[in-house]
Design a protein that fits this description.
The protein folds into 2 domains: about 120 residues, Tumour Suppressor Smad4, CATH 2.60.200.20; about 120 residues, no CATH class. Helix content is about 20%, strand content about 20%. The strands form 2 sheets. Strands 1, 2, 7, 8, 10, 11 and 12 form a 7-stranded antiparallel sheet that branches. A 5-stranded mixed sheet has the order 4-3-5-6-9, with no helix packed on it. Helix 1 packs across helix 4. The longest helix has 18 residues.
């Protein structure tokens, strides 16, 4: 799967309640049939329908499951490690199952060390089907083109946003430069180089005139640089210009314990 493919950008037309699930190892779509179960974990079919973290022994062979009942998909953690949902909600093996809301939900399976393995979920909403303009083409959000090196820098800087942490803030240029240096085999990434890439994106998007948040300080007492970085990352994530699967870009040749598909807390490598 391409790291830029993401259920955050929407799904194909399907019946209300249909579950779409995706990991770095593949994807699946399941109709909302009462009693239907989707199992995910380190195992492979037929033990699980969706493989997650197949190279990480901290991930259980059957780590979790989603069951359709009472008109919703219910998530249950069956593994020894935590499952993390947006806004910091954690599921332990002893936790009660929780319903998955309609639309997009990323969840992260705790793995070895600092690794977290992404599972994307999307439940088709009734609004996606029962609309007055059923045959009209869906209007995608405005997305902005990024060069490969710009995307890498922004993912490193904004990984807390892509991890759906509560109240995320950007890494410092120094932290991002240190992380990028590890990924590129020691090729130096100084703070100035990172700042230059970020400033170039901010200037380009500000000149375009249709970015939803303020990107440049126009008054001496205007927003701080950290606030402007926050605005940039917030807009890129909300527009799905940057999506959670982009975290795979941080698993470079020297990512060490991170390995394929393991997201890392900011500034820890």
């Amino acid at each position: 799967m391409n790291s830029r493919d993401s259920l955050a950008r929407g799904v194909t037309r399907a019946a209300p309640g249909t579950l779409h699930a995706r990991s770095l190892w593949g994807g699946i779509k399941i109709a909302p049939t009462p009693g239907r179960v989707l199992r995910f974990g380190r195992g492979e079919p037929p033990g699980v329908e969706l493989t997650v973290g197949d190279d990480d022994l901290r991930v259980s062979r059957r780590h979790g499951e989603l069951t359709y009942r009472e008109g919703a998909w219910w998530l249950r953690n069956q593994g020894q490690q935590l499952v993390r949902l947006p806004r910091g909600k954690l599921l332990h093996i002893s936790s009660e199952p929780v319903p998955i809301a309609a639309g997009y939900t990323p969840l992260f399976v705790k793995g070895s060390g600092y690794r977290e393995h992404l599972v994307e979920l999307y439940v088709t909403d009734y609004d996606q089907v029962l609309t007055p303009r059923q045959q009209a083409r869906t209007l995608a959000p405005k997305r902005w083109p990024l060069a490969d090196d710009e995307r890498l820098v922004l993912v490193a800087l904004g990984q807390r946003y892509l991890l759906y942490e509560p109240e995320p803030r950007p890494l410092s240029y120094r932290q991002a430069a240190a992380e990028l240096g590890c990924l590129t085999g020691g090729v130096p990434w100084g703070e100035r180089k990172v700042a230059y890439r970020v400033d170039a994106v901010r200037m380009r998007l500000a000149r375009a005139g249709d970015f939803p948040y303020e990107l440049l300080r126009t008054e001496p007492d205007g927003p701080s640089d950290n606030t402007l970085k926050h605005n940039l990352l917030r807009g890129l994530v909300e527009s799905t210009t940057l999506v959670p699967p982009d975290l795979a870009l941080l698993d470079g040749p020297l990512a060490g314990a991170g390995g394929p598909g393991g997201a890392h807390p900011p500034g820890t490598r």
